[in-house]
Amino acid sequence: MNSVRIIGGEWRRRVLRFPDSEGLRPTPDRVRETLFNWLGQELDGRHCLDLFAGSGALGFEAASRGAASVTMVEAAPKVFAALEANAKMLNASGRLRTIRADAVKFASSLSGEAQRFDVLFLDPPYKQGWLERLAPLLSRLMADDGAIYVEAEQALDSLGDWQTVRSGRAGQVFYHLMRSGKTNGAE
Prior knowledge:
Number of strands: 10
Oligomer: single chain
């Protein structure tokens, strides 16, 4: 089993364990620290969606930092089982929901619902067209003043109506914080 450590909040220093899976790359500590500096260390009251949860590093980190709710979506059975085991170990059931589903199908099923998310984490497997398939759904999933965090194999200026307002690179990974072009909420 692989492991990753939660770096901030209520569950700081707790270790999450997860199996090997093709395309699974946990967001490194340094990049997560940068992301949560961008978002603000506390996520109190925010509703988060982690569409490619994988190790759970981003979703569990958000829940640890006080998010009102975190929905974590993962399609791979063994990886999903590890997410559920980690949620149970942290006693996180009150604000954490794990769903085994395809990310695009799940996002499509939510696009007509009233709930919109404040923060979306997108860290899909590379070179499979996930971001392109999700781009048309983003505005219906997200609150207008929400933020999208995206990891990709190349630098991105935008994704649908969402514009990159902050970005960085760690090795082969480009990471971005995006805000809607409809608002002036760029940080």
